[in-house]
Amino acid sequence: MAKPPLATSTIVEALAPRFGRIELAAITEGEESQAFGLHHTDGEFIVRVNRSDTGFRKDAWAHSTLGDHLPIPEVIHIGRIDDDHHYCVSTRLPGDIVQDTTDDRQLTELAPVMTEALELVNSVNPSHLNGYGDFDPATAATGHRRWRDVVLDLAATDLDHPNTPPDIASSEVERLRDVVTTLAADLPEEPRLVHGDFGANNPLVRDGRVTGVLDWGAAMVGDPLYDLANTRLWAPFLPCMRAHADHAEARLTEPDAPHRIRCYLLAIGLRATDYYLAAGQPHLASALFARIAGE
């Protein structure tokens, strides 16, 4: 989903009836939302703008579900700017995104607390959600009856775009999809909460602690090893994810864990390659495809 290119003045105008006269300060953004800091008499907040409010509603659900156990921003208000844009105002938590930590020693020290935070997320059994995959927190509806179907859907892409570079060969795409299909046949059907994007931009850290877990838009019901596979996928590109993946994998005891991680890594990698091609970033798509082709 493309980031909504709204002028800051338009966003300020939309927030004025509820928050009065305000100023927004630009901060580091995600790939799909505009983001700003808001200093207000009531406190420090984050304002995000997206074409959909689905992720914002998941953020609110995550705080109500896990907020007593993990530092998750509280959603103060979700509103609409126009027919195509929604905004969310949430509390601002202390800390910096873990990606900004580049010292190897510090990353090694952070790895255990990162693993602990993710294990808390994955320990949740969302039994009230009837199925697997993406979910609507308001209705408890999910997208699939079986977890393996979620994974197969992720991998169901031929990566055929006008800008697909020649190094993304259709024969290799087909081979990788076949590997996913084979590995997915034996995936466990034990529902747990999956964050879906726990990695470089969404954990906040400070003084050796996780001070925030952000952006629950990709959260779903599935296998916790999906989160670890996503971390391992990006490990060659991001030192923070490499340190976390190394620590978390060293704790695994399930004999089929390597096969499950490989299955998810390939499926996520195929879908992410498709995403970057569609977003007009063929160089990043090529680098990511080369990463999964070596698995």
From TrEMBL:
Xref: Gene3D superfamilies: 3.30.200.150, 3.90.1200.10
Any GO MF annotation of the entry: kinase activity
SUPFAM superfamilies: Protein kinase-like (PK-like)
Signal peptide segment: none
UniProt keyword Transferase present: yes
Superkingdom in the source lineage: Bacteria
Domain Aminoglycoside phosphotransferase: 24-249
Pfam families for this protein: APH
Keywords, sorted A to Z: Kinase, Transferase
PANTHER family: AMINOGLYCOSIDE PHOSPHOTRANSFERASE-RELATED-RELATED
The protein, known as: Hygromycin-B 4-O-kinase
